[in-house]
Amino acid sequence: MATFPALPRRYHSASIWGLYIVGLCPAAWYFYQASTGGLGFNPVKEFEHVIGIWALRFIIATLAITPLRDLATINWVRYRRALGLIAFYYVLIHFAVYLLLDLQLNFGAVGSDIVRRPYITIGFGCLLMLIPLAVTSNNWSIRKLGHGWIKLHKLIYLIAAGGALHYVLAVKSVTLVPFIHVALIALLLAYRSVRKPIMDRKRARKNLGQPARAAR
Known about the structure:
It comes from Neorhizobium lilium. By secondary structure, this protein is mainly alpha-helical.
C-alpha cells in the first residue's frame, strides 16, 4: 500500500500551530456572524448550537487519527493532541455561551437544567470529563502518569458517546446532519473493538512477506 507523503520534520511545529489557528477560525467566524445579526432571529441559540457541532467534529477528528494510521497508513498522530485540545476549547465556548449569553449567569437556572434536563446533564458531564484530559495533554503529565495517562485518556470514548447523545437529545430529531455525526462516532468507537484482530492480521501478513523478500 502506498504511504501518504510525510511532512518534513522541520515543519511539524509550524503545522501544529497552524492547525490551532485554522481550527479556531469557525468559532471566530460564527462569533462575528452572531454579533452582526448573521445567525437569524435567535443568534445566541444558533451560536451555541453551531459551536457544539464543531466541538463534536473535532472529537470525531481526534478519534479518526488511529484508524487513519492503521488502515490508510496516514500518520497524523502528532496532531491528535491539538485536535483534542481544540475540541475542548469548543466545548468550553459552547458552555460559556449557554452560561453567559443564554442564561446570563443565572447559576440557579444552570443547576436546575443540569438536574432536570438529561441532555444538559450529559453535556455537563462530558465537559467535566474533558477537563482532566485537557490539563494532562502535555509531555510532563505523560511522563508523570505513565500507564495511568493512557487509562485516563480513554475517557475520550465515553465523552464521544456522551457528546453524540447530547446532540441527538438537544435537536430532538435525527435528521441528516445529526445522523452523519452520530454514525461517524459510532463507527470510530466500534473500530476500537475490532482493532486488535485487524492489527494482528496485518502484522501476520507482514511477517509472512518478510521471509519471501529475504529469500530474493
